[in-house]
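Minutes, project check-in
Item: structure for the 93-residue chain
Input as provided by the requester:
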Amino acid sequence: MTSNFDFLNRYWETLARIGKAAESYLYNDPNACIYKLGMFAERLVQEIFAKERLTEPTYDNTHANRIKILKREDDGRTGNVTGHSYHQGRRRR
């Protein structure tokens, strides 16, 4: 069965695997799906940190704090969507 996350396999196998797992839970266990999507978002932020060579915080190294750092480092490339989108996903979980 194909997944909406298959395109990630080439560079980010972990993201693809987590996304496929979330997708598989969509109708059977929506709470597990939301949990997996939260894991996906956390891993995505970690991948962005690695790709952009950002230093993770030494104090309060939480997902919320990493999102704040991404928002601060964003120089307008994403139209100020980065922080808002990630925080909304984090809060709803």
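Outcome recorded: The helical segments are 13-25, 30-51, 63-73, 82-92.
No further action items on this chain.
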